[in-house]
Amino acid sequence: MLPDSTHKLILASSSKYRKELLSRLGFPFTAISPDIDETPFPDEKPQETASRLAYLKAKAIGMQYPGSIVIGSDQVAECQGEQIGKPGTFEKALAQLQKMRGREVNFHTALCVWNGMDADPDKTAQKEIVKTVVTFRDLPDEELKAYLNIEEPYDCAGSAKNEALGIAILEKIESSDPTALTGLPLIALTTMLRQCGLSFFSGAAK
């Protein structure tokens, strides 16, 4: 059920991390998981995959709920030119962390805002990619396994759950938006939502 609001805001995601981030902005919203194929295309660059999937997520939900503002986001990690997605299992997560330890990894977080109040929302869809460069610590397998057993970050791209104990396996984070690595770049998003007519401080005292 959509919220009773002047602007019906929908997050096209089932991610608990993105829900928590969007809730910081104070708008009522509904989270709906889009049903799309997230398989990368052959020879597709990581940032291209992230951008395409963010757009497809927003469009899929936007077509189902006309008149709504829909937020789509996707993240793809890249290590030495190789795409690194969500591991899904302990074994795959450990292999990811072993590959990334001691190295710089690029996290491409794509954002798309679909404004269903526009006459042609497909044409006016706003898109942006925020790149975060993460340096992983060169840790032994024992520490990596312990981290995985504690956090179970199997739904996180690159197994990097930085908002919790995962911060201890990282040496450095470089980004223009501190929320991008968690999965939803709020600085870029607030700019896009302003373009859609949403006001963040309309109820604030003068």
Automatic annotation (TrEMBL):
<comment type="function">
    <text>Nucleoside triphosphate pyrophosphatase that hydrolyzes 7-methyl-GTP (m(7)GTP). May have a dual role in cell division arrest and in preventing the incorporation of modified nucleotides into cellular nucleic acids.</text>
</comment>
<protein>
    <recommendedName>
        <fullName>7-methyl-GTP pyrophosphatase</fullName>
        <ecNumber>3.6.1.-</ecNumber>
    </recommendedName>
</protein>
<dbReference type="InterPro" id="IPR003697">
    <property type="entry name" value="Maf-like"/>
</dbReference>
<feature type="active site" description="Proton acceptor">
    <location>
        <position position="74"/>
    </location>
</feature>
<dbReference type="GO" id="GO:0047429">
    <property type="term" value="F:nucleoside triphosphate diphosphatase activity"/>
</dbReference>
<dbReference type="InterPro" id="IPR029001">
    <property type="entry name" value="ITPase-like_fam"/>
</dbReference>
<dbReference type="GO" id="GO:0005737">
    <property type="term" value="C:cytoplasm"/>
</dbReference>
<feature type="site" description="Important for substrate specificity">
    <location>
        <position position="75"/>
    </location>
</feature>
<feature type="site" description="Important for substrate specificity">
    <location>
        <position position="163"/>
    </location>
</feature>
<keyword id="KW-0546">Nucleotide metabolism</keyword>
<dbReference type="GO" id="GO:0009117">
    <property type="term" value="P:nucleotide metabolic process"/>
</dbReference>
<dbReference type="Pfam" id="PF02545">
    <property type="entry name" value="Maf"/>
</dbReference>
<feature type="site" description="Important for substrate specificity">
    <location>
        <position position="17"/>
    </location>
</feature>
<comment type="similarity">
    <text>Belongs to the Maf family. YceF subfamily.</text>
</comment>
<keyword id="KW-0378">Hydrolase</keyword>
<keyword id="KW-0963">Cytoplasm</keyword>
